[in-house]
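We were asked to recover a plausible sequence for a given structure. The inputs and outputs are reproduced exactly as logged, with field labels preserved.

PROBLEM: sequence recovery
POSITIONS: 654
GIVEN STRUCTURE:
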């Protein structure tokens, strides 16, 4: 028996002949409604108890099971006693309603309205007439005090109001202006704050030859908005009034080109009307906005970073693991620098992603799982956790198996972030960058194509192949201009300073270029890159040029201080303190500056004749013998690693 459900009014169920089924009492209907709101997802019994009672009695769980048993008998009356239910099923810790996609009037309504938006006008009118005819009253009527029902009711009501206005516009398009007026008159009387309804009513009156009435409607709308809300009408209302007064040939022609600002305002307003506040859909959409915001410039990056944790927290509070996973994994913003801007926040995101993985249903989307794993890999950058590399490998395997280009690009970003377990891995990172460029160019992934060029810029710099690195810097700049990605210029500016440092015999030009690049970086909103980088670059420049380290001021080396302090103290003729600092310094982080930091340690060890430290430095640096120290960062260099190895060999042979 095919069962269908109605929620566009009181909650009901019908058998295949259209006869209503006996759903028993209010709590039975509430259980059914709550499962319908979940749209096929499992609702744990504990959640059902909390949603059905403000103060659950000790026997509430047993009551829920009784309600479910009664609903099963009503929905599948022919099912043998010991046969498993097929519609209202037990799964894991709770229940799910496995209704067909066309078995619930609200779901059919949303699909029909969506289809009408791309249908020809006459077909759109037919679809919307049919869809609006399914409403029997307020959605989920009788569940007025249930917060979970109110959110869904609000969403459906906004969708209904939009459908009324969408139908009016379609009728106007096919020349039925006079037919539209009575319905819209009642619509604006009931919903006086909907500017689109006022616009359509005025337009219908104008096209019906009632110009005076159209202007009167627009003035009434303006008066209401100003007096009651203290706001002016939006651009479409104002534009319509201007067109009518000017007797324009094309009054409110919806095919006319609209400016970006107007399109944004109207789309945002429509979204705000349509999607219920507090819904999971809003959170997922918010992540999309944060993703765009993060690549638009300094203030956008900072705002995205601040709001990302808030979005994850809000998703977790909704208690939907699948939603939480999508919110976490949807933020696939490419990352090029191996030190996090906010390590504490990165740790929180990794922990949230691990919780989402643990809570995932066995049948959950593999793509969502891969996005969580790639997130763990990216956010674990700069740490020594083995989990990051493990997550990167698994994310890559899943992405390749699924054949999803965008997912693979994100996974490769995670793999890149985990290729710093030893020195000398520039060729491996170059291969990752090359695949990112090819993959992204083929599939229109502009932001990841930029990432690929920056990765290759870094890798070719490490290998002293500046001719190729120049090509990737230029390609990244071109793509950044095309896709409006201003932060890319921060990295290409630093690259050009590095190039000077590596190729010009005089350090003065490179120092000036570094200072100019640092001025640009200071306002970029990237503290993980900015702090301490200029002093480190200038120190590496002096070491590379073989100049003595003499620091008259006290530069802020930021996170790099433990590894540069021995050289700084030596420059101040404090060898005992320098020796102690060298012994106390932890191993450098395995990141883009790994080789540069080890070269600075090597020079301090040579000056202090610390043979143990020299041997360790030689061991760590040998795999990078063919690279420029630190140039793999695309930011700075301490000169050829081979020269530092030669210095170590000479010192150890004495």
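RECOVERED SEQUENCE:
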């Amino acid at each position: 028996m095919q069962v269908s459900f109605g929620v566009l009014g009181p909650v009901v169920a019908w058998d295949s002949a259209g006869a209503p089924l006996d759903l028993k009492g209010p709590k039975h209907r509430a259980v059914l409604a709550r499962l319908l709101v979940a749209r096929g997802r499992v609702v744990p019994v504990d959640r059902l108890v909390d949603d059905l009672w403000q103060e659950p009695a000790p026997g509430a769980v047993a009551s829920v099971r009784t309600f479910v048993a009664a609903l099963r008998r009503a929905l599948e009356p022919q099912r043998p006693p010991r046969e498993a239910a097929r519609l209202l099923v037990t799964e894991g810790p709770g229940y799910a309603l496995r209704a067909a996609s066309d078995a619930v009037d609200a779901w059919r309504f949303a699909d029909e309205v969506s289809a009408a938006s791309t249908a020809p006008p006459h077909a759109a009118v037919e679809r919307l007439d049919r869809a609006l005819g399914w409403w029997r009253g307020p959605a989920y009527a009788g569940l007025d005090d249930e917060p979970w029902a109110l959110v869904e009711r609000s969403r459906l009501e906004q969708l209904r109001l939009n459908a009324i206005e969408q139908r009016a516009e379609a009728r106007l398009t096919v020349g039925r202006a006079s037919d539209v007026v009575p319905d819209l008159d009642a619509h604006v009387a009931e919903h006086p704050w909907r500017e689109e309804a006022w616009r359509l009513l005025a337009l219908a009156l104008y096209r019906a030859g009632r110009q005076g009435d159209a202007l009167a409607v627009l003035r009434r709308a303006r008066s209401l908005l100003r007096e009651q809300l203290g706001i002016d009408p939006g651009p479409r209302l104002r534009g319509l009034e201007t067109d009518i007064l000017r007797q324009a040939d094309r009054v409110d022609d919806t095919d006319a080109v609209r400016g970006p600002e107007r399109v944004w305002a109207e789309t945002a307003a429509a979204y705000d009307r349509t999607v219920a506040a507090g819904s999971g859909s809003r959170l997922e959409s918010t992540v999309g906005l944060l993703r765009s915001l993060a690549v638009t410039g300094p203030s956008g990056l900072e705002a995205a970073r601040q709001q990302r944790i808030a979005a994850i927290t809000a998703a977790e509070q909704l208690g939907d693991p699948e939603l939480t996973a999508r919110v976490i994994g949807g933020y696939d913003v490419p990352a090029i620098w191996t030190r996090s801007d906010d390590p504490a926040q990165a740790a929180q995101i990794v922990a949230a992603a691990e919780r989402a993985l643990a809570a995932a249903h066995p049948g959950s989307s593999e793509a969502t799982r891969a996005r969580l794993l790639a997130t763990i890999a990216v956010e674990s950058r700069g740490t020594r956790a083995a989990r990051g590399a493990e997550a990167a490998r698994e994310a890559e395997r899943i992405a390749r198996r699924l054949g999803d280009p965008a997912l693979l690009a994100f996974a490769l970003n995670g793999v890149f972030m985990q290729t710093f377990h030893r020195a000398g891995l520039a060729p491996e990172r170059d291969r990752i960058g090359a695949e990112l460029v090819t993959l992204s160019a083929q599939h229109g992934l502009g932001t990841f194509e930029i990432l690929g060029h920056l990765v290759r810029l870094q890798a070719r710099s490490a290998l002293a192949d500046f001719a190729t690195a120049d090509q990737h810097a230029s390609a990244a700049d071109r793509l950044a201009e095309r896709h409006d990605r201003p932060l890319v210029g921060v990295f290409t500016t630093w690259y050009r300073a590095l190039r000077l440092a590596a190729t010009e015999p005089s350090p003065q030009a490179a120092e000036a270029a570094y200072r100019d690049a640092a001025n640009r970086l200071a306002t970029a909103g990237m503290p993980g890159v900015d702090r301490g980088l200029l002093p480190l670059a200038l120190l590496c420049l002096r070491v590379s040029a073989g100049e003595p380290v003499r620091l008259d001021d006290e530069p802020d080396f930021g996170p790099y201080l433990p590894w540069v302090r021995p050289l700084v103290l030596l420059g101040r003729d404090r060898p005992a303190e320098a020796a102690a600092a060298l012994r106390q310094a932890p191993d450098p982080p395995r990141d883009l500056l790994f080789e540069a930091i080890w070269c600075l340690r090597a020079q301090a060890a040579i000056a202090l004749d610390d043979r143990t430290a020299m041997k360790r430095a030689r061991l760590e640096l040998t795999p990078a013998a063919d690279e420029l120290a630190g140039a793999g960062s695309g930011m700075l260099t301490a000169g050829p690693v081979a020269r530092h190895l030669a210095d170590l060999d000479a010192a150890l042979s004495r």
